[in-house]
Amino acid sequence: MATTAEILEELLNVEVELQDVQDQIKILLDRQGKLYERQSELNALFEDSEASGCPWDDGTAVTENWLETFEWDSQADDVRFNIFGIPEYRANQREIINAILSARDVLVIMAAGGGKSLCYQLPAILRDGVALVVSPLLSLIQDQVMGLAALGVPAFMLTSTTSKEDEKFIYKALEKGEGELKILYVTPEKISKSKRFMSKLEKCHHAGRLSLIAIDEAHCCSQWGHDFRPDYKNLGILKTQFPSVPLVALTATATKKVQADLIEMLHIPKCIKFVSTVNRPNLYYMVREKSSVGKMVIDEIVEFIVSSYPNKESGIVYCFSRKECEQVAKELRERGISADYYHADMDINAREKVHQQWSNSKLQVIVGTVAFGMGINKPDVRFVIHHSLSKSMETYYQESGRAGRDGLPSECLLFFRPGDVPRQSSMVFYENSGLQNLYDIVRYCQTRRECRRSAFFRHFAEPLQDCNGMCDNCSFSAEVKEMDVSGHAKCLLAVVHDVQENDQRLTMLQLVDKMRVKNKGVGPEMKKDELEQLVIQLILDRVLKEEFQHTAYSTNAYVTIGPLAKQVLQGKKIVMLEVSSKQKGGVMKGSKRSLASSGLVYKLDELRKELSSAHGGMFPHSVFSTQQITLLSTERPKTMEQRQVSEMWHVSRVCTSHDGLWAMPLVEKIIGKLKAQKYGRKILEEIQNFELQHPLPSDLVDEGQDGGNRSKKRLKTKNAPVVIESSEDEA
Ligand SMILES: Nc1ncnc2c1ncn2[C@@H]1O[C@H](COP(=O)(O)OP(=O)(O)OP(=O)(O)O)[C@@H](O)[C@H]1O
Ligand SMILES: [Mg+2]
Q: Which of 53, 110, 230, 464 is deepest in the core (most CB within 10 A)?
């Protein structure tokens, strides 16, 4: 018999060896992570190399200097500032505008909310004649035309809703150059189906009055894009008919393959390509575990909306099915949130009504399916919640990207539970790379360590950028444990194997149920949701795989043995599962999110709603943007002539030093000359009333030198000072 000393010695040896094994596991896991990364990169590169085989894609990168001095510089600055009320260009805008004004064809890839409209609207105003804009949806067109009307730009649309009178005016303007028409919006059907329209356009061109052609949401041309529209396929005719007119194609996302497709279909082989980053630095991404009890998910959603957005800021909740949409909307309403649903089964008028109410901020939340898509142009959507996961990273990027198009901090929250995966997989498995795309987003959801943003960079094959703590994994290092579950994995494989031997199959839920019985004694007991997580993990690692079978009513997803099962069974592959001991409650930090916390912001928001309804249903965001409201409430100009600015102005992203700007009255600086003339007095009145009713509280410490400097006022609290009027620079 071994002596105590011998036992202790062996115990020590075992412990040392175990430590060694743990270290090796860690190394292997790191290696596995890196291999996944490389796998995604290689997939993206593969897509690129396929695309570059296309003869049209000559890789026309930006080689010319589009930032040099151009003869139209001062005119362009004047229009940008005095008509659009935009103090500074954002990334690539000036370059794109210069390229278009130099009569070049241009392809623009710029993230949602990046400011693509300005890129063609500004040249349209500067160039002589009429600009033609093709846009896929009526609601998008209406929004744009209304916005331009608010700026005093003569813009019209030719669609099924255009009155006879307007149509006559437009045709006359095209044919004879009569009347004021600068920008004409049409749907692609007009180009492909209306000979009359095309002949008028021809005449306009012959008279040298067709100034430019813009194709918005250009990804609709490509079958590889996410929103293919058959009528977009015929837009190649525009370049053939009007070769000398500069054509600009714009989209928020396009893989290399889609870009090549667009260049070919639109016949713009020599176009200048401007590709901006996909990063949306103002969006905070987070994933939460989704309870299997429907009511609890709703409770969490309600709690999130009510506590984070007490001022009824707008949001979207995406659901998997139409039925779910209606149910969730009903439950939100029952809990006091003004919500309604939107899906493809509704008639067009009902859909449009809901959309309008939401766009006018009369409805706080739209609960939609994927059908609530492209036409959403509301810039101040503060949160996008996914009740179920999307079918791919690309779809999630699009849907979550509807938040914060005005550049202000906004939140994207996804509720994930493994049980939702088979629901999606049985829908997408027949699509090109459908399962691979789905598994990419499942990986995004499963990780408790990796930066959420980096998954987007990888997906769009872009170099990594700093997240700045704008995702739950970066801002909350939750207590994540790694559990060796190789024993459980083997047991799962044995269960699947036995069932397969009997010519039967198991769904994920059936497998987990069976496993819970067999689970005992395999190792530390795993809860049901952990077992579900493990099954998904094994599917992602190709140890298990999904197979599908059609029945008369549905397609069922089953779990079967995958190609790497042997590795686990032979002990060559260790299976580790990330489990967090605590649910992450990660949300954006207070100062970043509570935009409308100041009473004055609320008042100015009310004013813009009032002004918008007084202008025949124009959208509130066409009157002023949320960013302009925030600036007005921090600067609080007192007269139309006041020129003094506070430090907030200097630090704000939208307003940096610009010659000439400094001499301009403050109200004009914030909302542009035109709107200052139209609405300036009302704004000043609102500010004055607010200040009378809300004299500054005594516990505000003024650290600034002048009374107008509100940016430095801080509320005294027991702990750290809290900035009460937030700016995006407080990140
Ligand atoms: N340089 C700028 N400075 C400040 N705001 C800007 C600037 N350019 C555009 N904006 C504002 O940004 C918002 C989004 O612009 P726009 O609608 O053109 O985005 P987009 O790129 O077309 O997005 P999407 O792909 O979603 O259609 C608008 O409210 C617009 O007024
Ligand atoms: Mg747009």
A: 110
Phi/psi at 714 (5° precision): -125, 145
For the whole model, what pTM was predicted? 0.75
**What's the CA gap between 559 and 422, in Å, rounded?**
9
Residue in 77, 81, 116 to alter for ligand 1 test, most ligand atoms within 8 A of Cβ: 116
The answer to whether the CB of 625 is under 6 A from ligand 1 is yes
Taking CA atoms only, the protein residue closest to ligand 1 atom 14 is 113
Question: What is the C-alpha separation between 196 and 189, in angstroms, rounded?
Answer: 12
pLDDT of residue 699: 47
In 3D, which of 293, 291, 544, 574 has the Cα closest to residue 418?
Answer: 291
Nearest to 486 by CA among 419, 541, 528, 417: 541
- Render pLDDT for 467-476 as a digit per residue (tens, 0 to 9): 988 999 988 7
Q: Whose CA is nearest to atom 5 of ligand 1?
A: 86
Q: Are strands 576-580 and 480-484 parallel, antiparallel or unpaired?
A: antiparallel
Residue 322 in this model has a pLDDT that exceeds 70: yes
**Statement: residue 608 has pLDDT above 60:** yes
Tell me the two tokens of residue 110: 């710029």
613: amino acid identity, one letter: S
Q: How far is the CA of 552 from the centre of ligand 2 (A)?
A: 42
Pocket probe mutation, ligand 1, options 118, 276, 384, 627, max atoms within 8 Å of Cβ: 118
From the centroid of its chain, how far is CA 580?
Answer: 27
Angle, to 10 degrees, between the axis of helix 256-265 and the axis of helix 4-52?
10
Look at ligand 1, atom 15, and give the residue with the nearest C-alpha: 115
- Which-ligand-closest: CA of 655? 1
Q: How many angstroms is it from 93 CA to the middle of ligand 1?
A: 10
Instruction: Say yes or no: CB of residue 379 within 6 Å of ligand 1.
Output: yes
- The C-alpha angle 7, 12, 16, rounded to 5 degrees, equals 150
Cα(187)–Cα(174) distance, rounded to whole angstroms? 17
pLDDT tens digits, residue range 551-597? 878 889 999 999 999 999 988 889 998 887 655 555 665 444 444 44
CB of 116 sitting under 6 A from ligand 1: yes
Phi, psi dihedral angles at 560 (to 5 degrees): -130, 180
pLDDT tens track for 97-125: 999 999 999 999 999 888 999 999 999 99
Q: Are 52 and 264 in contact (CB under 8 A)?
A: no
- Residue 704: the pLDDT is 39
Is residue 676 within 8 Å of 628, Cβ to Cβ?
A: no
Query: Is the pLDDT reported for residue 716 higher than 50?
Result: no
The pLDDT of residue 115: 92
Enter the ipTM.
0.99
- Contact (CB, 8 A) for 187 and 219: no
Distance spanning both ends of the chain, measured CA to CA: 66
Nearest CA to ligand 1 atom 24: 112
Question: What is the model's pLDDT at position 52?
Answer: 54
